[in-house]
Amino acid sequence: MPFHIFNTLSRSVEEFSPQNPPEVTLYSCGPTVYLPQHLGNFRTFLNWDFLKRALKFDGYRVRQIMNITDVGHMTSDQDDGEDKIEKTARAEGKSPLEVANHYTELFLADWDRLGMERPELFSRATDHIAEMIALIGRIIDAGFAYVTKSGVYFDVERYRGENRFGRLSRQSLDEQHAANRLDHSRDKRSPHDFALWMLDQPHHILQWPTPWGPGYPGWHIECSAMAMKYLGETIDIHTGGMDHIPIHHENEIAQSESATRKPFARYFVHSAFLVGKEGAKISKSAGKFPLLSDLPGAGIDPLAFRLFCFGAKYRSELILSDEGLRAAQGNLDYFREFARNVPAEAAAPGAETPGGAETHYERFHDALDNDLNTPQALAVALDLVAESYRRQDFGGWPTLLTFDAVLGLQLGHYREMALGATISPEAQALIDERAEARRSRNFKRSDELRKQLETMGYEVKDNRDGATEYRPRRI
Ligand code: AMP
Ligand code: ZN
Questions:
Q1: What is the per-residue burial (b if ≥16 Cβ within 10 Å, else e) of 3-42?
Q2: Which residue among 141, 175, 187, 356 has its CA within the 20 to 30 Å range from the CA of 115?
């Protein structure tokens, strides 16, 4: 079965066919780096990691670009309020660059902890100002943007004409903007017009010269400019969270297609939200939000969060719950235990697969091809392990390792580490920190670190003489 995916443009599951197989170009809207990224943000990013790995499983070569927004994302999607990065910079007494660098580092560290493959490039908005200015020039030349004192605006009415409905959201302009109080006070022709470039804002710290005066870019233009620079004028897949459908992605399409007169993206794929128990979207504006760094203290490995997300369909809302996370941790432990239990003969290169592994392989493959049905793929992987125990035949291990190219649990590495009795540099850093915590009698921290090491697969034994033994857990 060829790969199928739900395309928001057609509102249906479509057979996937990229422009130049086996190449696939993938642009993923990335984070705005003014606060730490929460588990909701990472759910969306994980979904693109699953998508990318599933495409590779099918033999495609994926070229992914993800932006890092370090300027121009306003506190409202309507270009109103304050630039989010500058707001944090003022509050923390730092420069916008310091804020962006700090939260980018945190973001990348969490990204790696989740076992996500890095894209070919994380492209920062402030490194692509020239491309944005050039693209805005093209949009003005095509007649779809105009310059006023306060900014360069995209002329939405002109672009939409008679057809006042958004292609992606299928909403009228009024519906798209219904949730936001539109600012009529600006010198825009219509309240629906959005800023490509902000002018006349002397208090904004970051400013760049342009043919229209100094200022800074709007949020939407950065994605169009960077996507086109690295992936061409028509990209295969564009991804983002569902909140991007009505405004951000509508605007990206409008500005890109008015400049190039070509389809901007052939497939738009959107991820559903991670929500709290009450069903509310986890969001930065809520003030308090769960972070990846909260999990190890509760005995949850970052890779268990990865598995938790894998266990849900990308288009379905997912409720963040302790039970759900614990169940995912249970599954991770189950896979790891299996990895440790596989006898050396079964892990040798060329080991026979047992009868049945082939059908598991097909079922796993079909699940992924069927609109990235990761929960079903997970069920197949778990069944492969259960079946191996039932038959006491571990020949399915190589098949599980091929599944792990998509699951991303690093089971092969885990097995080597567990059986080779080596301590990884990551674990060594925690061991050193724990020794320091014990020296300074900070037992709370020492306990947290013990739990963290245990979830990473280490045995921790504090001896009476004060010394501690650490070893990778054996069978
Ligand atoms: P932001 O940094 O707020 O622009 O968000 C970065 C990405 O995370 C976007 O693709 C959002 O759609 C996505 N996102 C934000 N909140 C959630 C959530 N609660 N669940 C899933 N994705 C989210
Ligand atoms: Zn974007």
A1: bbbbbbbeeeeeebebeeeeebbbbbbbbbbbbbbbbbbb
A2: 356
pTM comes to 0.88
**Predicted pLDDT at 343:** 85
Q: Which atom of ligand 1 is nearest to the CA of 239?
A: 10
Identify which ligand lies nearest to the alpha carbon of 315. 1
| C-alpha to C-alpha distance for 33 and 35, rounded to whole angstroms | 6
Q: Where are the domains of the chain?
A: 19-286, 421-475
Q: Are strands 194-199 and 215-217 parallel, antiparallel or unpaired?
A: antiparallel
What pLDDT score does 365 carry?
97
Identify which of 26, 39, 44 to mutate to test ligand 1's pocket (most ligand atoms within 8 A of the CB).
44
pLDDT at residue number 424: 76
Instruction: Determine the distance from the C-alpha atom of residue 202 to the mean position of all C-alpha atoms in its chain, rounded to a whole number.
Output: 34
Which residue out of 34, 110, 243, 317 has the highest number of ligand 1 atoms within 8 Å of its CB and is therefore the one to mutate? 243
Q: Which atom of ligand 1 is nearest to the CA of 31?
A: 2
Q: Which fold has domain 19-286?
A: Rossmann fold (3.40.50)
Q: What is the pLDDT of residues 385-426, one digit of tens each?
A: 999 999 999 999 999 999 999 999 999 989 887 877 667 788
Query: What pLDDT does residue 463 have?
Result: 76
Averaged pLDDT for residues 441-466 = 85
- CB 104 within 8 Å of CB 68: yes
- Within 6 A (CB) of ligand 1 lie 29, 31-32, 40-41, 43-44, 240-241, 243-244, 271, 273-274, 281-284
Ligand approaching nearest to the C-alpha of 77: 1
Q: What is the pLDDT of residue 210?
A: 98
